[in-house]
Amino acid sequence: MSVPGSDLDLRLVGYFTVVAEQANFSRAAAVLHVAQPSLSRQIQRLEEHLGVRLFDRTPQGSLLTEAGRAFLPEAKALLQAAHQAELTARDGATPSEFTIGYVEDLVITHAVRWLRHRHPTARIRTRHLAWNDAHALADRRVDALVARAPLPFPADRLRLTELWTEPRVLVVSEDHRLAGKESVTVDDISAEVLPQCPSAVPEWSDFARLEPRPDGVPAPSAPIDYESFEDKLDLVAEERTVLILAAGDRRPQLRPGLTTVPIEGIDPVRVVLATRSAEAHPLIDDFRDAWSSSGTPASPQR
Questions:
Q1: How many CB atoms lie within 10 A of CB 55?
Q2: Which of 46, 70, 97, 116 is most enclosed, with most CB atoms within 10 A?
């Protein structure tokens, strides 16, 4: 049994709407990136299938016939319905909720907007987390996490996908001896005191303190009390310590009295997407694609 309209080629319908909008086969061919003769043949095929002439060619361009004017709104509705059917089918196999965690000052807006556009019926939420929230993924408060690596908590049960990298900088007081330099090296900061975080895994602590050092001498540290990142910035402003951060971390710029200096010869920070390695959420692959689809790797962050 033949289904009415089952032989109608949606690609040809799409070509028709573009020619109708441009009122000119040459301009329409340029928009569609096809050769004009090929486009003319495709429209002719559509006309033969419908049994009506859709366009009248005139010196002023290609004008819709009465049949073409009648068909145009139906054609647009047909294309929109086909697009919605595709989205509905895709989301029908997808959980209705997806929560994305992010930490510090990382901006994920562009990628989240792309994902919401791709899955308009899914409930996609974002949640800002403490930088050392070790249980957000395990407790299923989030399905994915965007953070800077190495993570300050065990990541052996997580899958990490690198999104982009950032160079690192030294954060110092504006009155510090190194303030204003074009750049510094590990040797330049060998005597500087760096804070320790006893609750973080050694891998994170070593990365934050540039250990092990080339000369094998541990980075100087002192028993400095702090409860938050803002507390550490105050300690830097008082010249009781210095910090090493990703260049993309804008939080020190919001604190008066601080400045940053690039550090040469050290590994950059990797911004990663962390997910549960034992579970594959249907939206995770699309969220990974969102970063490459949103331009350069760093563009979602800016």
A1: 21
A2: 46
**C-alpha pair distances (Å), 152 with each of 103, 170, 208, 241:** 12, 19, 10, 20
Q: List, in order, residues 6 or more apart from 237 with CB less than 8 Å away.
A: 173, 255, 257, 258
pLDDT tens profile 82-108: 877 876 766 565 567 899 999 988 999
DSSP 96-123: SEEEEEEETT---HHHHHHHHHH-TTSE
Cβ contact 289:118 at 8 Å: no
Using CA atoms, how far residue 105 sits from 91, 129, 146, 185, 301, in Å, is 31, 10, 11, 26, 9
Phi/psi of residue 272, each to 5°?
-125, 160
Q: How far apart are CA 156 and CA 153, in angstroms?
A: 9
Asked if the bond preceding 212 is cis, omega within 30° of 0, the reply is yes
Q: List beta partners, residue 124.
A: 98
The pairing of strands 158-166 and 168-173 is: unpaired
252 CB burial (10 A radius; 0-12, 13-18, 19+): buried
Question: Which two structure tokens, joined as six digits, stand for 160?
Answer: 């990490």
Residues in a beta bridge with 158: 276
CA-to-CA distance for 51 and 265, rounded, in angstroms?
71
User: Whole-structure pTM over 0.70, yes or no?
Assistant: no
